[in-house]
Amino acid sequence: MSKPAYLAFETGGTKLVAGVAGPDLRLLETRTIYREPGAEARHSLGRLIELGHELQQAHEAIGLEFRGCGLGFGGYVRRSDRRPLANLHEPGWGELDVVKLLHAAFNIPATIENDCKLAALAEAHFGAGRGQQTVFYMTLGTGVGGGIVRDGSIIEMSDIGEAEIGHIIVLPNGPLCACGNRGCVEAVCSGPGLSGLAEWVAENKPQLRAATKLRRSETGFASEDLMTAWRTGDPFARKVIETAAICLASAVAVTINLLAPSVFVIGGGVGSGNPEFVGLVREKAIRLVAPCFRDRYEIRSSLLGAQVVTQGAAILASQQAEPDWRPRDA
After folding, report:
1. 10 φ/ψ angles, rounded to the nearest 5 degrees
2. pLDDT tier at 87 (50, 70, 90 boundaries)?
């Protein structure tokens, strides 16, 4: 008797990922390629479908039966017709009926969702939010986004999403954000945001800038260098990172006060790659959370790492194809 399996795809800032999940929904295999310079959506989707066919053939040969597929999309998704709206990394996605094309390619049910929402779903089922009723997930990397999961399912609050924690303003008159406002979480706490915050601190605290041993490249201060210098006690880096932690703690506390999640999970390269920074955010957030919630939540680092979106895409594919599915080993 064949065992169920699911195809899972991800399109992000630079990479395209295809994966296979088995009967317990955990990923069995993933394959990653990188977007070609100047590529457009139709070409990238075609490359994902090619990878998917390779994986499908290999795993059908060992007795798996594919029952659904899901795509984690690095942009906004219109849920009313399950179509992508836009991807900041390459043009053309808004012109494609991705679900229809995936269904035609693999002859199985297909679905699509924003990548941060799928990361939240994965962490709720298999990661730092496992066993918790309500999970808020924030990705803290090149950009900042969020997702909310309750009782194992994504909470859908509008046709194009929710949980845009990256655009809470936490530093009025701070660095300019891509959205047009100043001082958003994304403009202060993301990887590029930390670099922008360092420039802002250097302008406003020239004495600290003069004292630092950090070197500024043509593109600014690297977030990794700032983190390293902070750990060694550099006063300029300390001011940058502690400012970022206070700003992020403010947004985290606002979210906890509004939604009362059981656990707040921080992922992405900046988040999951810097546990000391997450600890500093945790320390500063508790003073900002309403007293009635202070013993009712936890702030944790992501456990699933780079495959979190692809893992979430597999789970959503299963939920669409088999609505009664729950983790077998829960």
Report:
1. -145, 135
2. confident
Amino acid type, 57: Q
Which has more confidence, 225 or 212?
A: 225
Q: What is the largest CA-CA distance in the chain?
A: 71
Global pTM reads 0.94
Domains of the chain listed by start with CATH number: 3-115+306-321 (3.30.420.40), 128-303 (3.30.420.40)
- Please state the rounded mean pLDDT for residues 149-164: 97
Number of H helices, E strands in the chain: 11, 12
52-61 long-range contacts, CB within 8 A, separation 24+: 52/7, 52/9, 52/18, 52/105, 52/106, 53/105, 53/106, 54/18, 55/7, 55/18, 55/19, 55/20, 55/29, 55/31, 56/7, 56/20, 56/106, 58/29, 59/5, 59/20, 59/28, 59/29
| φ and ψ at residue 78, rounded to 5 degrees | -90, 110
